[in-house]
Write a structure and sequence with these properties.
By secondary structure, the protein is of the alpha/beta class. The protein is 43% helix and 22% strand. The radius of gyration is 15 Å and the shape is globular. The chain starts with a strand and ends with a strand. It contains six helices and seven strands. Strands 3-2-4-5-1-6-7 form a seven-stranded mixed beta sheet, sandwiched between helices.
Amino acid sequence: MVSTTLVLGGARSGKSRFALDAHAARTRVTFVGTALAGDPEMAERIERHRLERPSHWPTVEEPYDLVPRLREACAGTDAVVVDCLGVWVANLMLRGDPDDHVFKQADELAALLALRLTDVTLVSNEVGLGVHPVTEAGRHFRDVLGRVNQHVAAAVDRVVLMVAGQPLTVKDVRA
C-alpha cells in the first residue's frame, strides 16, 4: 500500500534521520534535496547529509522546481524522500517568487501526493513553535511556510512531529 508522510520538527529534532530510517530496508529509494550550497557551512551540511544516506540511493538536487522533479523521481522507485520543504520555500521566496506562486506550488505538490505514485516522505521545518522572528522577513517566512505545511499535511496520509528525536504521530489515516 502506497503511503505519504510529512515529518515536521525544529532544528536538530531528528526529522531527517527519521525520514531516512523509514526507508532504510529498501534498495530503490530516490532522495530529493532542495538545498543550495551557497556558503561553506551549507556545503558542509549538504555533504554531511549525503554521507548519512545509503550511497546507492540516487540523489536529485532541485532547489526550485520540486513538483516536476518529484513526479519524475516517483517513476521506477519504491520510495522518495524529500528534504526539505522549508528550504524549498525559502529558495522560492529568496528568488522573489510572490506568495501566491509559492501557495500554488504547494497546491500542485498536494495534488501530486494525492496520486499515490509511490511512497513519499517529506521533511519540513515546524517554525510555529520557536522564537518569534524579530524581522519582518522572518515572520513572513514563518507564515508562508506554515501555510505550505498545512497544505501538505492535509494531503498526506501521515504527519509525524519530531521532538528531541522522538516521533509523535499527529495524523495517521492508515490506522
